[in-house]
TrEMBL record, chain A:
PANTHER family: GLUCOSIDASE 2 SUBUNIT BETA, N-LINKED OLIGOSACCHARIDE PROCESSING. This is Glucosidase 2 subunit beta. PROSITE patterns: EF_HAND_1, EF_HAND_2, MRH. Residues 299-339 have a biased composition (Acidic residues). Keywords: Coiled coil, Disulfide bond, Endoplasmic reticulum, Signal. Residues 150-220, 369-403 form a coiled coil. Residues 214-249 form the EF-hand domain. InterPro entries: EF_Hand_1_Ca_BS (IPR018247), EF_hand_dom (IPR002048), Gtb1-like (IPR039794), Man6P_isomerase_rcpt-bd_dom_sf (IPR009011), MRH_dom (IPR044865), PRKCSH (IPR036607), PRKCSH_N (IPR028146). It comes from Cyprinodon variegatus (Sheepshead minnow). GO terms for biological process: liver development; N-glycan processing. Residues 419-520 form the MRH domain. It comes from the Eukaryota.
TrEMBL record, chain B:
InterPro entries: Gal_mutarotase_sf_dom, GH, Glyco_hydro_31_C, Glyco_hydro_31_N_dom, Glyco_hydro_31_TIM, Glyco_hydro_b. Its main location: endoplasmic reticulum. It comes from Cyprinodon variegatus (Sheepshead minnow). Residues 1-25 form the signal peptide. GO terms for biological process: carbohydrate metabolic process; N-glycan processing. Residues 396-722 form the Glycoside hydrolase family 31 TIM barrel domain. One of its GO terms (cellular component) is Golgi apparatus. Its EC number is 3.2.1.207. It catalyses: N(4)-(alpha-D-Glc-(1->3)-alpha-D-Glc-(1->3)-alpha-D-Man-(1->2)-alpha-D-Man-(1->2)-alpha-D-Man-(1->3)-[alpha-D-Man-(1->2)-alpha-D-Man-(1->3)-[alpha-D-Man-(1->2)-alpha-D-Man-(1->6)]-alpha-D-Man-(1->6)]-beta-D-Man-(1->4)-beta-D-GlcNAc-(1->4)-beta-D-GlcNAc)-L-asparaginyl-[protein] + H2O = N(4)-(alpha-D-Glc-(1->3)-alpha-D-Man-(1->2)-alpha-D-Man-(1->2)-alpha-D-Man-(1->3)-[alpha-D-Man-(1->2)-alpha-D-Man-(1->3)-[alpha-D-Man-(1->2)-alpha-D-Man-(1->6)]-alpha-D-Man-(1->6)]-beta-D-Man-(1->4)-beta-D-GlcNAc-(1->4)-beta-D-GlcNAc)-L-asparaginyl-[protein] + beta-D-glucose; N(4)-(alpha-D-Glc-(1->3)-alpha-D-Man-(1->2)-alpha-D-Man-(1->2)-alpha-D-Man-(1->3)-[alpha-D-Man-(1->2)-alpha-D-Man-(1->3)-[alpha-D-Man-(1->2)-alpha-D-Man-(1->6)]-alpha-D-Man-(1->6)]-beta-D-Man-(1->4)-beta-D-GlcNAc-(1->4)-beta-D-GlcNAc)-L-asparaginyl-[protein] + H2O = N(4)-(alpha-D-Man-(1->2)-alpha-D-Man-(1->2)-alpha-D-Man-(1->3)-[alpha-D-Man-(1->2)-alpha-D-Man-(1->3)-[alpha-D-Man-(1->2)-alpha-D-Man-(1->6)]-alpha-D-Man-(1->6)]-beta-D-Man-(1->4)-beta-D-GlcNAc-(1->4)-beta-D-GlcNAc)-L-asparaginyl-[protein] (N-glucan mannose isomer 9A1,2,3B1,2,3) + beta-D-glucose. Residues 730-818 form the Glycosyl hydrolase family 31 C-terminal domain. This is Neutral alpha-glucosidase AB.
Length: 534, 951
């Protein structure tokens, strides 16, 4: 078995001028040297037992706390101290001593493993110094910017507060205005309604008269058609020539049935026929139609088109949705207008005409009615306008109140991020961070945007809560949670998203630099290595 | 990865279709029941009774190596050829094929390590009812009964096993299709021609009629056969939207085995079920058909990813095994005459002197191929393992590092992620050896490639791991993206290596990359080409610390029947139906070969596979597939790995933490504690689960996980020695208690605890909120030492052990010596030269012994006898180390830093004597309360001869 030297001679620079030799067991930091007195019994640092001095670093674990073997891997819980002259000293678990892997930059952990380690402390120290300088510079400039931001935020806040006062005042005026206009509107709408109803009623009556006329003409026409022998009477036999009139539709139109239709008599004259007509109107097929010519001939189609009663049923089905579409478009266009038909009855669109009976369009409103309608509409418009303004002002107040009460950091230094958005483009996606609002992701080459979360809260550690933002409740993941994003803020001169990643499924991580997170350089350690050794 | 949804759109949709049809549990409707599998339904419809098969004794031929005999089915006159072999090592092989099949039937190649050597059979007696043959020197005989045909294997007066004793032998002979036009023409012409021939032959050859009686299959018989009825599903079968064209018609084989005196049967993995197999009378048979089962359900006989058609039967007197060598879809029915009986019922039988002996009856049904069955006659469990190993080989001896801890996740996102996780292990001081990359590391699921953005410089990444003496595994699945810009695809296609569909075009299925081809791994030339792809100059970005994982090799075909390949796909002249269960075996074989070849045959490979077959133990490790983060899944990992171990596959593990869903921290910790004592120790997680590296659950849980992983590493020397032993003997590393205590019926159904080798008994905590566990400590002369407290417990007892979250109940057997390495490093490679602590646990006779195996940990040089095998023994207060293999050569820097003797008494003096006759007094410490003697720093090299004497 191999015994290792218990002690190492360490050369250290002291105060930059004096050189001293410090002798102590391998792996023991200077601060604990006093516990390892040469050739005196050693008491484990946890006090559990005392062992002869030659058992320190003898590659056998005697102390439960591992304090007897800092320089070997014998104890599972030992700590090895690397001096790392030229860089930062540090501890590694003793289990990494002589495991063939270079851990300490001064190579002291691999003194017996054959690992080919190079002393990289100076190089590391130089790099770290440069790095720290860079960070310090950034912090310095960043902090200047931050002070500016704080100033601006302060100003902005005051402006917003005074604006809020103004807007709150104007809201009161607007409310009064809305109420006044509502009264005007209601007053104007009453006579309008009455006049419109009058007009409509007159038109209905007129329509009924026209319809009656037409029915009479039709009765006469049919009578002539039925009266085959032109004797002025429609007889049972003549009626029977129209099998479609068979009341029970059993295929045989008997005399008795025909007689029944004629009201129990053998024949009827024109006057009596009026009653009969009412009973057979639904079923009757005009004789001119019964003689159907081959389909496809234009004249026939025209005839059919002009045939009145059946027309509405003959509408091609596909017209209906089209009409609805047209209506929708119309609605969209009309959105700004009001619901009332204040104009003269709307001009019928061609395809709607078919719906109308032969009575023709409603005649325009008379001048007096139209005047009432116009007046009411004007009142409505003015009322709506006023209400809209009030709503806008209310929104404004809400937004202002929200912004004023928002937690923008201890000195509102993050306020400048409000209502801004920052983007980062990766090979596949464009990521968009809108602080205090939302995070989203959009494929670079087409595709819809995915929400990676809405503003949730500040979520940094207790002592630095403003270093992390959390966005939650984004688009749900298949079989997974809703997407969420953690935004880590670091000090930087510029405000930019520097990276994004998805460390766990649907949990995104964004790195974000901002001067607002920069700390006062004078308050932080300038980054000089901890010179415990010297 | 948000990209998952976008990129995997089509696949996802398909998965949605597959998976969203139900809850978390498997959608059983996606998989066939026996009733939905036409051949299973047909064969299962045959009920016990008199077999139509008759042995034609006059056709018997007995040569030095085998007996052959024709069987005839009296219903259809089809003749079968029975071959019976006596194999070396107490194995009887029974082969049954059609005497003259219409075309050859598939016989499984490559699974047996060689043509098994035979022993002579001798005829003891013969009459018109049958023959009796002697099975070698023992008093074993095989009795062949003629009418009906049956085989009985008898030892002394005991029947060990009977074949076709229930008359369930079924052999669907190949036939011409008769319900089609072409058949009718052929058969008509044939029968006319038959008649003509008959007329002429009877004129020309007066003996023709005579001849017909013995010359099979004569035309008369064929004609009769043609009258058999055609059933649904014989020539075509549809399941869900998939139609199986079955151009060869019915071809199933089945046979029953009776096991008198047996109440416990085991094996036939892979099923998520108890260790002791259940009877199947009231449900489906156990199914063996390699399938990618999404979110599998526990405690049922459904098929899973792998199949090993080997069943072990055990009672207090004897262990036997049945190895049914058939790679087609297979169903196994088990029934028992005692299964339905309660304990009271059994007692009543006993009291009343019921003469009925317990018996288990088994029936195997396969869709095609032949009957080729190996009856392994034990009589001890060890002998059955060795018999099976003599047929299919032993466990591959894995690289030492692969016995360490593996950190896996679907997926580590990029190189930075890998670096950060690697650093996390150092920061939290948890050892690990392998970090794994799942499918997302590839360039668009093109295996052998790297994502150009996320893994732009794989060698840099691998070098970073190598600098820490750690390794990586990257996934290589067998489905190959159909993409003419993908070299692997182009080469496979141009070489004609793809499996073909029934029409002869390259088979295409849907898998991770979208449309994919499936290389025909049954072809040796394909496997050789595939192996070549692992060469360092072929597999870009690979290095010697990159190993391989074969997933989806059932094969998984998202849009195929039962999520696998169409059975009428073609592997050359064979149908996929014939070879299905072999596919994954061949994939792993070709991959392992590739890893061997890339190092010029020097380095041992490590390949993990999900699908497997008999013989897969020779190729690497398996895991139990896509389990879930549920307590029951933790529990089932024990019987699942025990069942695999019994049939040779020792290197088994379950995804620690559970693949699907997210474990509670308690479950995760318990799973680490269990996994640390199971052979393959890997944490894995689904893409959609939150991250779960060991340090993400608070410092307390991190500490618990660290401790579990560290315990694993301290036992690495023992694990390594167990695997060496498994490699040598085929004995399972993780084994059921009954293997070591075969006469103790209390152990026969235990599957909540297990043994590692002979010497460690593990009863992991697998209950949520457990306050204690009850461990059965076997062996009436045994003592067991708690490895943590050194408390001694006597066997036999049910020991209640109170537990806290840090408890992992593990016991070392008195009488054993276990070498451990207590210095826990970052990875196993860092521990190479570390010293050993010997744990000497004394038995009641104050003796103990154990072994230690050491080699370089990763090459095949041990085959050149470059290793150390020591035997430690403690008797008469002397602990000594002797060389078990004096002609083997290896040197180690490792020394003995500590000897801990459990159950010791206090000595006055301890002396070390080394081989150069030097004597040294050793210091020691004695803990009287636990009787633990700790000898401080004896310091001798572990490879040397020495003695330590206690006075």
């Amino acid at each position: 078995m191999i015994m290792f030297g218990h002690f190492v001679l360490l050369l250290a620079l002291f105060g930059g001028a004096m050189t001293v030799e410090v002798l102590r067991p391998r792996g023991v930091p200077l601060s604990k040297r006093q516990f390892y007195e040469e050739n005196k019994p050693f008491t484990c640092l946890d006090g559990t037992r005392t062992i002869p001095f030659d058992r320190i670093n003898d590659d056998y674990c005697d102390c439960p706390d591992g304090s007897d073997e800092p320089g070997t891997a014998a104890c599972p819980n030992g700590n090895f101290h690397c001096t790392n002259a030229g860089f930062r000293p540090g501890f590694i678990p003793s289990s990494r001593v002589n495991d063939g892997i270079c851990d300490c930059c001064d190579t002291t952990d691999e003194y017996n493993s054959g690992a080919d380690c190079q002393n990289t402390c100076r190089e590391l120290g130089r790099k770290e110094k440069e790095e720290l300088q860079k960070i310090a510079e950034i912090a310095k400039e960043g902090f200047m910017l931050k002070k500016q931001l704080i100033q601006e935020a302060k100003q902005g806040l005051e402006e917003k507060k005074s604006k809020l006062g103004d807007v709150q005042n104007s809201k009161k005026d607007l409310e009064a205005n809305v109420e006044a206009l509502r009264t005007v509107k209601e007053t104007a709408e009453k006579p309008e309604k009455e006049a419109k109803e009058r007009h409509l009623k007159a038109w209905e009556e007129q329509k009924a008269a026209i319809r009656m006329e037409k029915d009479k003409a039709r009765t006469a026409e049919v009578f002539l058609e039925l009266d085959d022998d032109s004797d002025g009477f429609v007889s049972v036999a003549e009626l029977q020539s129209h099998p479609e009139l068979d009341p029970d539709s059993d295929g045989s139109f008997t005399e008795a049935e025909a007689q029944g239709l004629l009201g129990g008599v053998d024949q009827v004259d024109t006057v009596a026929f009026e009653t009969v007509w009412n009973n057979i109107k639904e079923k009757y097929v005009s004789e001119s139609n019964a003689d159907v010519p081959p389909p496809g001939e234009t004249p026939q189609e025209e005839t059919q088109d002009t045939t009145s009663d059946n027309d509405s049923e003959n509408y091609p089905d596909e017209d209906i949705p089209e009409e609805e579409d047209n209506d929708d478009e119309e609605d969209d266009e009309d959105d700004d207008m009001d619901d009332g038909d204040y104009k003269a009855p709307p001009t019928m669109r061609t395809d709607e005409k078919k719906d109308e009976d032969d009575e023709g369009p409603m005649p325009p409103y008379d001048q007096e009615t139209q005047a009432l309608i116009d007046a009411a509409q004007k009142a409505r418009d003015e009322f709506n306008e006023a209400e809209k303004s009030l709503r806008e002002v209310e929104d404004q107040i809400r937004n202002l109140e929200k912004e004023i009460s928002f937690d923008f950091g201890p000195s509102s230094e993050f306020a400048y991020l409000y209502s801004q958005c920052y983007e980062l483009t990766t090979s596949e996606y464009v990521y968009r961070l809108c602080p205090f609002n939302k995070v989203s992701q959009k494929p670079k080459f087409g595709g819809s945007e995915t929400s990676l979360g809405m503003w949730g809260k500040w979520a940094g550690p207790e002592d630095n809560i403003y270093s992390v933002m959390k966005y939650e409740h984004g688009t749900g993941c298949w079989q997974g949670p809703n997407r969420s994003t953690t935004v880590k803020l670091t000090c930087g001169k510029e405000t930019i998203v520097t990276s994004t990643s998805e460390p766990s499924r649907c949990e995104y991580l964004m790195e974000f630099t901002s001067p607002a997170i920069c700390q006062d350089p004078s308050s932080i350690d300038s980054g000089h290595p901890d010179h415990e050794e010297l | 990865m948000a990209t998952f949804t976008e990129r995997m759109g089509p696949v996802l949709l398909f998965w949605l279709g597959l998976c969203l049809s139900g809850t978390w549990a498997v959608d059983k409707g996606n998989f066939k029941t026996c009733d939905q599998s036409a051949f299973c339904k047909r064969q299962r419809a045959i009920t016990p009774g008199e077999s139509p098969y008759r042995a034609l004794l006059e056709t018997m031929e007995l040569t030095n190596t085998k007996l052959t005999l024709q069987l005839i089915n009296d219903n259809n006159k089809v003749r079968l050829l029975l071959e019976l072999y006596r194999l070396q090592g107490n194995i009887t092989r029974v082969k049954i094929n059609e005497l003259k099949p219409l075309k050859p039937r598939y016989e499984v190649p490559d699974v047996l390590i060689r043509e098994p050597p035979t022993e002579p059979l001798s005829l003891l007696s013969q009459d018109e009812n049958g023959v009796v043959l002697s099975l070698g020197a023992e008093s074993q005989r095989v009795i062949v009964s003629a009418r009906p045909f049956r085989l009985d294997i008898v030892e002394g007066r005991d029947v060990l096993m009977s074949l076709n004793s229930r008359g369930l032998l079924g052999f669907e002979h190949l036939r011409m299709r008769k319900d089609t036009f072409s058949y009718k023409v052929t058969s008509t012409v044939a029968s006319v021609w038959d008649n003509i021939k008959r007329v002429f032959s009877s004129q020309a050859d007066p003996e023709a009629d005579n001849k017909e009686a013995t010359d099979p299959p004569s035309q008369v018989e064929t004609t009769k056969e043609e009258e058999e009825k055609v059933e649904d599903g014989m020539w075509e079968e549809t399941f869900k939207s998939h139609t199986d064209s079955k151009p060869n018609g019915p071809s199933a084989v089945s046979l029953d085995f009776s096991l008198p005196g047996v109440e416990h049967v085991y094996g036939i993995p892979e099923h998520a079920d108890t260790l002791k197999l259940k009877t199947t009378d009231s449900g489906d048979p156990y199914r063996l058909y390699n399938l990618d089962v999404f979110q599998y359900e526990l405690y049922n006989p459904m098929a899973l990813y792998g199949s090993v058609p080997v069943m072990l039967a055990h009672n207090a007197q004897r262990t036997t095994g049945i190895f049914w060598l058939n790679a087609a879809e297979t169903w196994v029915d088990i029934s028992s005459n005692t299964a339905g009986k309660t304990v009271f019922g059994k007692m009543l039988d006993y009291v009343q002197g019921s003469s009925e002996t317990p018996q288990t009856d088994v029936r195997w049904i396969s869709e095609s191929g032949i009957i080729d069955v190996f009856l392994m006659l034990g009589p001890t469990p060890r002998e059955v393992f060795s018999q099976y190993a003599s047929l299919t080989g032993t466990q591959a001896f894995p690289p030492l590092a692969s016995l360490g801890y593996h950190q896996c996740r679907w997926n580590y996102n990029d190189q930075e992620d890998v670096r950060a996780v690697d650093a996390g292990f150092d920061e939290h001081d948890i050892p690990y050896d392998f970090i794994w990359l799942d499918i997302e590391h590839t360039d668009g699921k093109r295996y052998f490639t790297w994502d150009p953005h996320k893994f732009a410089s794989p060698k840099e990444m691998l070098q970073g791991l190598m600098d820490k003496k750690r390794k990586m595994v990257a996934i290589v699945d067998p489905h190959i993206k159909v993409d003419t810009n993908y070299k692997i695809h182009n080469e496979i296609r141009s070489r004609g290596f793809y499996i073909k569909n029934k029409d002869g075009a390259d088979y295409e299925g849907w898998c991770w990359p979208g449309s994919a081809g499936y290389p025909d791994f049954t072809r040796p030339d394909m496997r050789a080409w595939w192996a070549g792809q692992f060469a360092y100059d072929q597999y870009e970005g690979s290095m010697e610390n990159l190993y391989t994982w074969n997933d989806m090799n059932e094969p998984s075909v998202f849009n195929g029947p039962e999520v696998t390949m169409h059975k009428d796909a073609l592997h050359g002249s064979w149908e996929h139906r014939d070879v299905h269960n072999l596919y994954g075996f061949y994939v792993q074989m070709a991959t392992a070969q590739g890893l061997i070849e890339r190092s010029g045959g020097v380095e041992r490979p490590f390949v993990l596979t999900r699908a497997f077959f008999a013989g897969s133990q020779r190729l690497g490790a398996v895991w139990t597939g896509d389990n879930a983060a549920e307590w029951d899944h933790l529990k089932i990992s024990i019987p699942m790995c025990l069942s695999l171990g019994l049939v040779g596959i020792s290197f088994c593990g379950a995804d620690v933490g559970g693949f699907f869903k997210s474990p509670s921290s308690e479950l995760l910790v318990r799973w680490y504690q269990t996994g640390a004592y199971q052979p393959f120790f890997r944490a894995h997680a689904h893409l959609d689960t939150p991250r779960r590296e060991p340090w993400l659950f608070g410092p307390e849980n991190t500490a618990l996980i660290r401790e579990a992983v560290r315990q694993r590493y301290t036992f690495l020397p023992y694990w390594y020695q167990l695997f060496y032993h498994a490699y040598q003997t085929g004995e399972p590393v993780m084994r059921p208690l009954w293997v070591e205590y075969p006469q103790d019926p209390a152990t026969f159904a235990l599957d909540d605890e297990f043994l590692l080798g002979r010497d460690l008994l593990v009863h992991p905590v697998t209950e949520e909120g457990a306050r204690g566990v009850t461990a059965y400590l076997p062996g009436k002369d045994e003592v067991w030492f708690d490895i943590h407290t050194f408390q001694k417990h006597n066997g036999v007892q049910n020991l209640y052990i109170p537990v806290t979250m840090s408890s992992i109940p593990v016991f070392q057997r008195g009488g054993s010596i276990i070498p451990r390495k207590l210095r826990v490093r970052r990875s196993s490679a860092c521990m190479e030269d570390d010293p050993y602590t010997l744990y000497v646990a004394l038995d009641n006779r104050r003796t103990a012994e154990g072994e230690l195996y050491i080699d370089d940990g990763h090459t095949f040089n041990f085959e050149k006898r470059e290793f150390i095998l020591r035997k430690f023994s403690f008797t008469n207060n002397v602990l000594s180390s002797v060389n078990l293999e004096p002609d083997a050569q290896f040197t180690t820097k490792s020394w003995v830093e500590r000897i801990i003797i459990l159950g010791a008494s206090k000595p006055s003096k301890i002396t070390l004597r080394t081989s150069d006759d030097q004597e040294n007094q050793l210091e020691f410490d004695f803990d009287a309360s636990m009787s633990v003697l700790t000898i401080r720093k004896p310091g001798m090299n572990v490879g040397a001869d020495w003695t330590v004497t206690l006075q």
